[in-house]
Amino acid sequence: MNPASHYIALSYWDVAASSLFLFIAAVLTLVLKLGLARTIAIRAARMVAQLIAIGYVLKFIFTATSPWITLLAAAVMVSFASREVLGRQERKLAGLWRYGLGPSAMMVSGALALVYALTVLIQPQPWYAPRFALPLFGMILGNSMTGVALGLNMITEAIVREKAAIEARLLLGRSRWEALRPFAARALRTGMTPIMNAMAASGVISLPGMMTGQILSGTPPVEAVKYQLMIMFLISGVVGIGVIAAVFASIWRLTDARHRLRPDRLDAAK
Length: 270
Fold this sequence. Notes:
There is one protein chain. By secondary structure, the chain is mainly α. It contains 10 helices and no strands. The longest helix is centred in the C-terminal third of the chain and has 33 residues, at 221-253. The chain is globular, with a radius of gyration of 22 Å.
């Protein structure tokens, strides 16, 4: 038997039994009256329903191997990721900018990285093979979503909270970029912290999810490491580019050509 194709199948009972520790955690929150048991149960049930559904959907998509179906699946993923980015903003940009700025930074950088990975690095046949395209896009999009959401939230909060300090810098003759540089740097660090932490912990503290899955399915560890390194480089690059684009585009939108602060371009409702 080829060891690379060997994997140990799990029964549904095995999957149900794996929830034992989550069940114990839920019971403890109930005993301690923390009010989290219901939330844990709902989130767990939602996770089960979503993953089972996506399993059957992916089976259909992988069998079809159609570029249009793959593109449609990617578009659905982008729409849900965009919704999450918007939902995590305490202060949103007013008008259509809220839908175009953060989500577009995330989508464009993620799509470019995916096409690069498929056409230059992995080169599956066909190049848009959904078995490769969708898992890669999901990992890139998920991490980019978190980074962009954190960076955007930090810069918009800083513009509202530090309005007086920023305007004082502008009155002293600083350009909008100079006046907002410290706050932009803080937003960039915040947005990139999760992926930086993941990079620092990979291999020493934890085995990343993709690498673990490949090893459990029988892939030789060295080959799994190669794929994981490729993924981490792609993800970290996309997160960095996406966060930088989103933060500086927000600064451009929330100031004007006369280097005045424009918090009125934020939605008044939090």
